Amino acid sequence: HKKIVIPSLSFFQDELKGEGVVKSRRTLGELAGIFENQDAYSQLPLDQLAYEVYSYLPEREGTPGGLYFGITQLYPGKVGDEYFMTKGHFHQQEDRSEYYWGLEGEGMLILMDRERNTWAERMMPGSLHYIPGGVAHRVANTGNSVLSFAACWPSDAGHNYEEIANKGFSARLVEVDGTPKLR
Ligand code: S6P
Ligand code: ZN
Questions:
Q1: Euclidean distance between the first and final Cα of the chain, in Å?
Q2: Strand order in the sheet with 147-154
Q3: 177 CA to middle of ligand 2, Å?
Q4: pTM of the entire structure?
Q5: In a mutational test of the pocket of ligand 1, which residue from 54, 69, 87 has the highest number of ligand atoms less than 8 Å from its CB?
Q6: What is the number of the ligand closest to the CA of 72?
């Protein structure tokens, strides 16, 4: 494996393109169904970029004991009173946990356990978030600038997007009088 220096986002963007870092992107069109206000959603361009993920995947997907690293850049915006957010997922291997930590901007990490209890943690530069196994996770950008956060997760965690796509979280993070509230 390549030696890797703790990356700043610019390191990821400039130095590692095409060197084992995979860049993926999600447009608003790919987030169909996750927002409550369908009218507001239909006013927005489907090709507008919602977020980008730079992932360093040094092991083959499914390798036990390995770790992956990623940086997500989530753009600011709202659909009605709901903030731009990531799709959100459980891990395919239910007991696999993950760390998130805030790099830039302001946001909220929305978490939901198997009993469908939902809670949220404020993300800011330097905030550290432990996501235990069996807890679904999604991030909302509650600020006016890009929210950037890093993640580290096991290479055998996998992603289960289906459950969240079908049933969502049991609460939505919306802006009420200028501040984010779970509803
Ligand atoms: C992977 C980790 C993150 C997310 C990324 C985008 O386990 O949680 O890298 O993939 O933040 O979110 P999502 O829900 O679209 O995968
Ligand atoms: Zn995850």
A1: 45
A2: 21-27, 49-56, 67-74, 147-154, 98-104, 128-131
A3: 31
A4: 0.93
A5: 87
A6: 1
Residues 64-115 pLDDT 10s: 999 999 999 999 999 999 999 999 999 999 999 999 999 999 999 999 999 9
- Contact at 8 Å (CB) between 144 and 51? no
**Nearest one of 123, 130, 138 to 170, comparing CA atoms:** 138
Q: What one-character-per-residue DSSP string does 83-99 give?
A: EPB---BB-SSTT--EE
15 alpha carbon – ligand 2 mean position (Å): 25
- The 10s digit of each residue's pLDDT in 136-174 is 999 999 999 999 999 999 999 999 999 999 999 999 999
